[in-house]
Write a structure and sequence with these properties.
Blueprint: H1 5-10, E1 15-19, H2 26-30, E2 38-42, H3 43-51, H4 53-65, H5 68-75, H6 91-97, H7 110-129, H8 131-140, E3 146-150, H9 161-170, E4 172-177, H10 180-192, H11 201-215, H12 225-251, E5 253-256, H13 257-260, H14 266-280
Parallel strand pairs: 1-3, 1-4, 2-3, 4-5
Helix pairs in contact: 3-7, 4-6, 10-12, 11-12
Length: 282
């Protein structure tokens, strides 16, 4: 969605999609908006509670069935397992995605890892296609005036132009760019606390091959999961930046993470985006 800065300011029911790498501050920024006026749509929350709910539960049940005490209780329907996913706690989604590598260290086989990656890919596409319906629901049912789509960090990896066109048709796309001085901070943080991530399959195959050659691994099942995730994150960061920039150039606008860190309230947020539109509008 393209518009002038004044059109944005006059837009009575604003719908915005925030795009950025994990750690850029999307959710922190969205949380600074008044909860009674802005409907907060989390792509990751929708994935976990709608599209991956059953696979996530199946994964947990499979782990529980390996424990004789829990197995007996589950088979007799004495206990049940459920998710407690919230916008603030998306750990079940992350744990399902998992990490590829040595099973003795909690890793997944390459085949199973790719299966889960594909499920996540399909779920993220579906969650983004749901955005127009939720914009309507947010206003018609719940009475929210504005809508913020906190999109997952891997939206740029979907290779699905139709998703981007849908988001651009119904929302103003805003990319939060991480300036060079913050890049190393985010990379260092990710390397010190490796988290499960989504990778395009071609990217994964290329980087896994490079990693195994560099560190002389002959089998993915021998790789310590955290070791690969820590090594690959800077490569992923480098690969995603031009993808985000291309999306912003074609469909939306760019703001700096340095500037978003200075946002304290709704007015700061609106003025920051209006300024970006004025500078980048063509």
């Amino acid at each position: 969605m393209r518009m002038s800065a004044q059109e944005f300011l006059d837009w009575e029911s604003k719908s915005i999609t925030l795009l950025a790498m994990s750690g850029a501050g999307k959710t922190t920024l969205a949380n600074k908006l008044p909860k009674d006026k802005w409907f907060h749509y989390s792509g990751d929350y929708r994935i976990g509670t709608k599209y991956l709910e059953e696979p996530i539960l199946d994964n947990i049940k499979q782990r529980a069935m390996a424990v004789p005490f829990l197995r007996e209780l589950l088979l007799s329907d004495s206990i049940y397992i459920c998710n407690n996913i919230t916008v603030e706690n998306l750990a079940p989604v992350s744990s399902f995605l998992g990490k590829m590598g040595n099973p003795d260290l909690g890793g997944l086989s390459l085949k199973e890892f790719k299966r889960r990656q594909q499920l996540h890919h399909q779920a993220e596409i579906a969650a983004m296609y749901d955005v127009p319906d939720f914009i309507k629901k947010a206003e018609d049912i719940y009475g929210y005036k504005h809508f913020i789509n906190d999109a997952g960090g891997s939206v740029c990896e979907l290779n699905c132009p139709e998703v981007l066109e849908t988001l651009a048709e119904h929302t103003l796309i805003v990319y939060i760019k991480i300036p060079p001085e913050l890049e190393q901070t985010i990379i260092a943080r990710a390397k010190s606390d490796p988290k499960p991530l989504y990778y395009r399959e071609t990217f994964l195959d290329e980087k896994l091959d490079a990693f195994m050659r560099a560190f002389h691994y002959t089998d993915p099942n021998l790789i310590p999961p955290d070791e690969f995730v820590s090594w690959v994150f800077p490569e992923l960061f480098k690969a995603r930046v031009p993808r985000y920039e291309a999306i912003a150039s074609q469909y939306g606008y760019t703001i700096s993470a340095t500037d978003t860190a200075l946002v304290n309230n709704e007015n700061d947020f609106i003025q920051l985006i209006a300024k970006a539109i004025a500078e980048q509008h063509n």
